[in-house]
Design brief:
This protein is of the alpha+beta class and about 375 residues long. It is built from 10 helices and 10 strands. The longest helix has 25 residues. The chain starts with 9 loop residues before the first helix and ends in a 16-residue tail after the last strand.
C-alpha cells in the first residue's frame, strides 16, 4: 500500500512522470538492440477509445471486456474544500485525458483509458443521510485493516490496456485536485486473460486459478434491476462500489488437491463449470445431490454461500484483480445499486464460506459512483450543485 501525506506538487508530477517515460524509452531502446537482426514485431492493435461522457460513467460496463490494468486511488477532502467545484474540475480533466488533449499525458496515447469517480459516505451524508451511498461498510471477520486503509472521501478508478498510463493519469488527476485532497491509499492490480464461457460471456481467472465473475448482471435488463441507481434524481445513473483488498494464502491453497480446491469454489478449475454440471454460464444447480445424499456443490462452497438466490439479494457486477504489492492477493470490486447486496452476501459468507479461510482483508471502502456527465452537466453536479 502506498500512502502520501500530501498531494504531490506540479514539480513532482513532472519529475515522476518524466522519469517514467524516460525509463520506458530506455527499455524500448534495449529491446530494439536485443532484437537487432530479427524481424520486427507486429505492433499491437490500438484499443478503441471509450467516451468519458454519457448517462453512466465509463469503467463499469464499458468497455467490455474490462481493461486488464487498474489503479485505484483513494483520497480525503481537505478542510474547507468545496466538493462541487472539485468534482467539476476532475470531470474536465477526465475528459481531456481520455481524449488525449491533456499535456500531462506527456504524449502517451490514451487508448481505452477510463477514469471512474466516486464519493465516500461522509460526503454523501452531508447532502442527505438517506441517500444511496450514505452508509459506511460494517466491519467483518478476517480483517486486518489499518485506519488509513478503511474508507475515504474520493475514489478515482483508473483502467487502461496500457499499464504505463495508470500512474501518469493518477498524477495528473491529483495535480488537478491540488491541495483540496490528500491521498489516503492506492492499489494497482491486473486482470488475467478472458476465458470464453458461452452465450457471448467471458471472464478472467483470479489469482487462485479459478474463473471469476461468472455470475452477474450481464443483460441490460439485469443491469437496470441490480446495477444502476434509478433514483432519487441526484444519484440516478450512478451505482454503489465496494473495494476490498485481500491477502491470499497462496501456498496453503496450492497445497490442496485439485478436487479440494474445486470443492472450495464449487466449480471445476479448468472450465468454470459448476460441480453440479451444465455449463459455466448456466449457473450451479444447488439442489443436485449424489446418490448418498451429499450436495454436488458442497454446503460451504463459495458458489453456494455467495449465490444471490441463496442470500436473497440482487446480482453484483464483480471484478477481481491480482496484486503482488504489498502482498500477493487480489483487489475485489463490486458494483450494485444497493449496498445490502454486498453486506448481506459477505455476512452470509462469513459464517461458513470455505474460500474465506484463505483470505485476510487489508483495505476496505465503499463509494457512490456518481452519475455520468457531459459538457453541459459537470461531474457531480446532480448531487453537489
Amino acid at each position: 500500500m502506498h500512502r502520501a501525506d500530501h498531494h504531490p506538487s506540479r514539480r513532482r508530477f513532472l519529475d515522476v512522470t518524466g522519469a517514467m517515460v524516460a525509463a520506458g524509452l530506455t527499455a524500448g531502446c534495449a529491446s530494439d538492440s536485443a532484437q537487432r537482426g530479427r524481424p520486427a514485431r507486429t505492433a499491437a492493435a490500438t484499443p478503441m477509445p471509450v467516451a468519458a461522457t454519457g448517462r453512466h460513467q465509463a469503467g463499469i460496463t464499458l468497455p467490455q471486456p474490462a481493461q486488464p490494468n487498474l489503479l485505484a486511488v483513494v483520497a480525503d477532502l481537505g478542510a474547507g474544500a468545496a466538493v462541487g467545484p472539485l468534482l467539476a474540475d476532475l470531470g474536465q480533466a477526465v475528459r481531456a485525458l481520455t481524449e488525449g488533449s491533456d499535456p500531462r499525458l506527456l504524449g502517451l496515447p490514451p487508448g481505452d483509458l477510463t477514469v471512474t469517480v466516486g464519493v465516500g459516505p461522509r460526503l454523501v451524508r452531508a447532502v442527505g443521510a438517506s441517500l444511496p451511498g450514505a452508509a459506511d461498510l460494517p466491519r467483518f471477520s478476517r480483517e486486518q485493516i489499518a485506519p488509513r486503509a478503511r474508507g475515504g472521501d474520493l475514489l478515482m478508478q483508473i483502467c487502461a490496456g496500457d499499464a504505463l498510463l495508470l500512474p501518469v493519469v493518477a498524477a495528473a488527476l491529483l495535480d488537478q485536485a491540488g491541495d483540496r485532497v490528500r491521498e489516503r491509499w492506492r492499489q494497482s492490480a491486473r486482470r488475467g486473460a478472458n476465458v470464453p464461457l458461452g452465450n457471448g460471456l467471458t471472464a478472467p481467472r483470479n489469482p487462485l486459478g479459478f474463473i471469476d465473475g461468472i455470475v452477474g448482471p450481464h443483460t441490460k435488463a439485469e443491469q437496470q434491476r441490480d446495477l444502476w441507481l434509478a433514483g432519487p434524481s441526484e444519484v440516478a445513473g450512478g451505482t454503489i462500489a465496494v473495494l476490498r483488498r485481500m491477502e491470499l494464502d497462496l501456498p496453503r491453497f496450492a497445497a490442496l488437491s485439485v478436487a479440494e480446491q474445486e470443492a472450495v469454489f464449487g466449480r471445476h478449475r479448468a472450465s468454470g463449470v459448476p460441480l453440479s454440471g451444465g455449463t459455466a454460464a448456466s449457473g450451479p444447480n444447488l439442489g443436485a445431490k449424489t446418490p448418498d445424499g451429499r450436495y454436488l456443490v458442497p454446503a460451504d462452497a463459495h458458489a453456494r454461500r455467495a449465490h444471490p438466490a441463496v442470500v436473497g439479494v440482487g446480482h453484483m457486477l464483480r471484478r477481481s484483480y491480482g496484486t503482488d504489492e504489498p502482498a500477493a492477493g487480489l483487489l475485489f470490486i463490486s458494483f450494485q445499486n444497493d449496498l445490502r447486496t454486498f453486506t448481506a452476501t459477505l455476512t452470509h459468507m462469513d459464517t461458513s464460506d470455505a474460500l474465506l479461510r484463505f483470505t485476510t482483508t487489508t483495505a476496505s471502502a465503499t463509494f457512490l459512483i456518481l452519475p455520468g456527465f457531459d459538457r453541459q452537466r459537470p461531474l457531480g453536479s446532480q448531487l453537489f450543485d
